[in-house]
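Worked Example 4.2. Consider the chain below.
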Amino acid sequence: MALGTKRADLCVEYGAYKYPIELKLLENLRSRGHTIEQISDYMDKCGSMEGWLIIFDRDTQKPWDEKNYFKEENINGKRICTAGC
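Applying the procedure from the previous section yields the following structure tokens:
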């Protein structure tokens, strides 16, 4: 989804709400600060107070219970949900 000059990976529209979603591979994950800034910027552009970050861990040696997690954070008044898989 184009949001200004940048593009969010996905944006779910549910009624009047929009939820930008950024997808990252763990091996290519930029610094956490940059990634949070990126999703926060997408949230600003679509007028949302909630966004999602999905992190894919392709390490085949790591057990699933270490890869799978869910975390909610409130950063600058915005709710950012992070899910690992």
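Residues 2-84 form one domain. The chain has one domain: 2-84. Compare this with Example 4.1 before moving on.
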